Amino acid sequence: ALFSGEIFMAKKLMYLERLTEVPSFPEIIR
Questions:
Q1: How far apart are CA 13 and CA 16, in angstroms?
Q2: Residue 19 in contact with residue 28, Cβ under 8 Å?
Q3: CA separation for the pair 25, 1 (Å, rounded)
Q4: pLDDT tens, 1-30?
Q5: What is the pLDDT of residue 17?
């Protein structure tokens, strides 16, 4: 079982990775 903190960190990391993959501003907003 994952702690809520671990889930939050995982989502945060995936979000940051997606920002680096898609540098276009409109994609970041969406």
A1: 5
A2: yes
A3: 35
A4: 567 888 888 888 888 887 777 666 665 555
A5: 82
As a three-state string, the secondary structure of the chain is CCCHHHHHHHHHHHHHHHHHHCCCHHHHHC
Structure tokens of 30? 């969406």
Q: For residue 24, give both structure tokens.
A: 């276009």
With b for 16 or more beta-carbon neighbours within 10 A and e for fewer, the 1-30 pattern comes to eeeeeeeeeeeeeeeeeeeeeeeeeeeeee
